[in-house]
Specification:
The complex is a heterodimer of chains A (348) and B (272). With 348 residues, chain A is an alpha/beta fold. Chain A is built from ten helices and 17 strands. An eight-stranded parallel beta barrel of chain A has the order 7-8-9-10-11-12-15-16, surrounded by six helices. The radius of gyration of chain A is 20 Å and the shape is globular. Chain B is α/β, with parallel strands linked by helices and 272 residues long. In chain B, strand 3, helix 1 and strand 4 form a beta-alpha-beta unit. In chain B, helix 1 packs parallel to helix 2 and helix 4 crosses helix 5. Classes of the chains: A alpha/beta (348), B alpha/beta (272). Chains A and B meet through helix 8, helix 9 and helix 10 of A and helix 6, helix 7 and helix 8 of B.
């Protein structure tokens, strides 16, 4: 990224992620260096933000420690999210914590196979539709705000989450759930494999700070009025809190075109992939004014480098409208996406 | 905003357009048009054109009359630029696409070019559309930066209604609030034009991004979304270009783009 407010050069220490666990066991507290933040832990990596005023002697001393791999200078406003830390894409692992043992988990990003997150419609959150979505190729099942357990009606959020967990374990898929408020985290953290910040909450900074304290993947959707840099800074809030397992999901931005109030911004995919090591998903459902647009835009996003897509599923075939895809069309789309990814040199 | 008629009410438009023997559209391979933004000299155009041909481009592009935002910017070589393009294109046995800015210039451009481009800034220039339609050459119609899909289809229909059915629509992006890019390519416009009409659609990832480093991923996206072709700016030495250097590909990068386009086209079941 070359735009936005000029930022003083900051430093980030890349840590040996196994050695850091031993150091932590010996009682190395987070924030032990003046100006440094929390140790951020991802899947297979750890880093420590050193701020933008680290003295060169302190950097030298850190460099000599055996659990410090290297120290990176970062000049973008987002630091822990920066591509300067890792040239390779880092994966985020989802799931693998179901009680049935049938749900093995999945890796998002890291130049692995294409991720397909399917949002089940509220009226068909049953085992049959979940099984169908997984059979068609969905690798994660999502329960969005509309269908979300949030709302205060009986059964309670906690009880509904238990039901959804059972549903996902039954079909062997990890589950993600939307959280609209920091106070809902407690009710979903036991059961959800990932917590999703919807676009309208992207700059709910108290929510982002709370999610940064968790040891659970967080998916952040771009707000329709946010620039790419603002999107990355929202991710930085979660990372700065210590949670390195952040996934970006781009639904597009507001446009003045009356036909589509949200426009899927294809340029953002390569911009994000160049700017960050975090996984990047596309959400073509949010902008699709007609179901016929979902598959081409999904293929485009993967061709441009997206690690996967997040799609709304129609309740049943023949009921699709707007951004929801016919469950029968999902299977063909997943095949297409795997071929497009393979053409770009990624594993199927 | 006018409502565009449904596909079966749109008569006459050809689903395959032929320029200099190159067929663009339904059932055809992905066609790539490449060349410099501006013709700067015979040497520069010859070098760019040879690179385009070597990498597999189907048609050449070049600007002789340039619509520049500032009156102080390089305005193009005009008639001399047309002659350079024609000469090089004939030497290489290729067709050439160039833009007409003024209705007065259309007859002269029609004598030199195999396909006439209407630029994004002129999509609504009805008299220019009429003049170009009458010239009897295939037309590359770029979507205006602030035009909706129904509006670009209405402009295309104006040309077809005039009796020229050889119209290719080009998506080239528009302005958004994103400061990191010059324009933002509207990828959904490609399937939307196809859903609403039978016009061939190509994409311009050079103007659609404004940054050479984004050109290849966005070109692949357009092919994956079903584009019938691409128009790409290349320059033998982008840093010395008189216009659009920041979004122009070096010949070696263009060759790599062509290779990637072939792979993506095959992945979506299309001849490269």
């Amino acid at each position: 990224m070359t735009t936005g407010a000029a930022s003083a050069e900051a430093h980030v220490a890349i840590l040996d992620s196994s050695a850091i666990q031993e150091a932590a066991a010996r009682g190395t507290p987070d924030g032990m260096w003046e100006g440094s933040g929390n140790i951020v832990r991802g899947d297979g990596w750890a880093a420590l933000g050193l701020g933008d005023r680290a003295a060169s002697e302190s950097l030298e001393r850190l460099r000599s420690l055996d659990w410090v791999e290297r120290i990176v200078a970062v000049s973008t406003p987002f630091r822990l999210a920066s591509r300067a830390l890792f040239q390779r894409d880092l994966p985020v692992r989802l799931g693998g914590r179901g009680t049935s043992g049938r749900e093995a988990g999945t890796a998002v990003g890291g130049r692995g196979s294409v991720t397909i997150v399917a949002t089940l419609p509220a009226r068909s959150q049953n085992e049959r539709s979940a099984r169908r979505a997984v059979a068609a190729g969905a690798t994660v099942l999502h329960f969005g705000r509309a269908s979300s357990p949030v709302g205060g009606r009986a059964p309670s959020l906690r009880e509904r989450m238990a039901g959804l967990r059972e549903l996902c374990d039954g079909v062997g898929a990890p589950m993600s759930v939307a959280v609209a408020d920091a106070r809902q985290i407690g009710d979903v953290i036991e059961t959800a494999d990932a917590l999703v910040v919807e676009a309208h909450s992207m700059q709910d900074f108290s929510l982002l700070r709370e999610l940064g304290r968790l040891d659970r993947p967080v998916v952040i959707k771009r707000a329709s009025g946010a620039t790419v840099e603002e999107f990355l800074l929202a991710a930085e809030y979660v990372l700065a809190g210590g949670n390195g397992r952040v996934i970006l999901c781009d639904p597009g931005v507001r446009s003045f075109d009356a036909a589509w109030t949200i426009r899927f911004e294809i340029n953002a995919i390569p911009l994000l992939k160049a700017a960050t090591h975090l996984p990047v998903l596309a959400d073509p459902s949010a902008s699709a004014s007609h179901p016929a647009l979902i598959a081409p835009v999904s293929r485009a996003a993967v061709a441009a480098g997206a690690d996967g897509v997040m799609l709304d599923l129609a309740a049943r075939s023949g009921t699709e409208r707007g951004g929801a895809i016919d469950p029968r069309a999902l299977e063909a789309l997943v095949e297409d996406l795997r071929r497009v990814a393979a053409a770009g040199g990624r594993p199927t | 905003m006018s409502t565009h008629p449904s596909p079966d009410e749109t008569p006459l438009a050809a689903s395959v357009v032929r320029a200099a023997g190159v067929a663009i559209g339904a059932g055809q391979p992905v066609r790539v048009i490449a060349g410099p933004c501006s013709v700067e000299s015979a040497e520069q155009f010859r070098e760019a054109a040879a690179a385009a041909k070597a990498a597999g481009a189907a048609l050449l592009r070049g600007g002789a009359f340039k619509p520049r935002t500032s009156p102080y910017s390089f305005q193009g070589l005009g008639e001399r630029g047309l002659a350079i393009m024609r000469g090089v294109a004939d030497d290489l046995g290729m067709g050439v696409v160039t833009e007409a800015l003024s209705a007065d210039d259309v007859p002269m451009i029609a004598r030199s070019a195999d396909m006439i481009q209407i630029g994004a800034r002129n999509m609504d220039n009805a008299f220019l559309l009429d003049e170009v339609a009458d010239a009897g050459k295939p037309i590359l119609l770029k979507r205006g930066m602030a035009a909706s899909v129904p509006e670009v289809l209405a402009a295309a229909d104006r040309i077809v209604a005039r009796g020229n059915d050889q119209v290719v629509i080009c998506e080239r992006g528009g302005r958004t609030f994103e400061p990191a890019v010059r324009n933002s390519l509207d990828i959904a416009a490609i399937p939307e034009v196809k859903r609403r009409s039978s016009y061939p659609v190509i994409a311009d990832p050079s103007h659609g991004t404004g940054r050479w480093d984004l050109v290849t991923p966005v070109a692949l996206a357009a092919v994956a979304a079903g584009a019938d072709g691409l128009i790409v700016e290349i320059h033998p030495d982008p840093e010395s270009a008189l216009s659009d250097g920041a979004q122009s590909l070096r010949p070696d990068r263009f060759a790599a783009l062509m290779e990637a386009v072939r792979r993506t086209a095959a992945a979506v079941g299309r001849a490269p």
